Amino acid sequence: MKKRFKGALHLHTTFSDGEYTPEELKDHFQKRGFQFLMMSDHAEALDPEKMTEYVARCRALSDESFCMAPGLEFAYADPMGPGSGSLHLLGYGVDRYEREENPLDMVHTIHRLGGLAVLAHPYPPHYPVIAPMEKFLDGIELWNTKYNGRFAPALWNYALLKETRGVHPEVFGFYGTDFHWKTQYCEMGIWVEAESLTPSALLTALSGGKFYAERKGTVFTPEGALTPDQEARFGKVEQAYQLWKKIVKGGKQPFRMLHLPVPKRLKAMARKVL
Ligand SMILES: [Zn+2]
Ligand SMILES: [Zn+2]
Hints:
Blueprint: E1 3-11, H1 22-31, E2 36-39, E3 41-42, H2 48-60, E4 67-69, E5 71-76, E6 87-92, H3 103-112, E7 116-119, H4 127-130, E8 139-144, H5 155-167, E9 172-176, E10 189-194, H6 199-207, E11 211-215, E12 218-220, H7 228-257, H8 264-273
Parallel strand pairs: 1-2, 2-4, 3-5, 7-8, 8-9
Antiparallel strand pairs: 1-10, 5-6, 6-7, 10-11, 11-12
Bound molecules: zinc ion (ZN) (2 copies).
């Protein structure tokens, strides 16, 4: 019989640029009622040897009441030429270290390693690189609460998923916490209907769309359906959020120009709101 489990997707630890060790991360989330974590430390910070340790640590933290599934996030710098920004691809469930030169090859390798390939925080200017990958993806992040903020997802991601699912309905919308900092927002819960609390059962359920995200009592579906009211509201929040991001960036600029560290209080303030 299938059971329902609550977890979070897209998390970083001290194995890359996260503030918590895997042990601390488990503690943080378990206390808040989460039963599983789909990990995604940056591949660029690991190598095959570190990966072995990472996987062992994740497994040692997993039992019948909690599952920490290893996984990686792969970065592709400037896929559209210099200054075009980095494209990130999540490999949920991969437990071996392999790295490909381009994101499309990486999608296939993630599958060969038994993982799920999910496009992280899509960036509209990358569309020409994303388009040929679309049909091979398992998912597209509709809402990354670090990247898009906690108040609303990016509507462009929904448009991308809609277009993709029009041709490939097996691609689903994912919801990631992209957890790095101890004080970061982490209330996006993913409810999965799976056979057991193990990486393979959770991956099967996620790839089959047997899940939904829940935030403050509102449900978000893997099909990416939004009501007209949500769409209108999210559009407004997104605009306000972009403006705030610009202001924060502007605030950090003078420190960067003078090669001074950005004051902790300014950073903390930005993180609190975002
Ligand atoms: Zn990322
Ligand atoms: Zn990330």
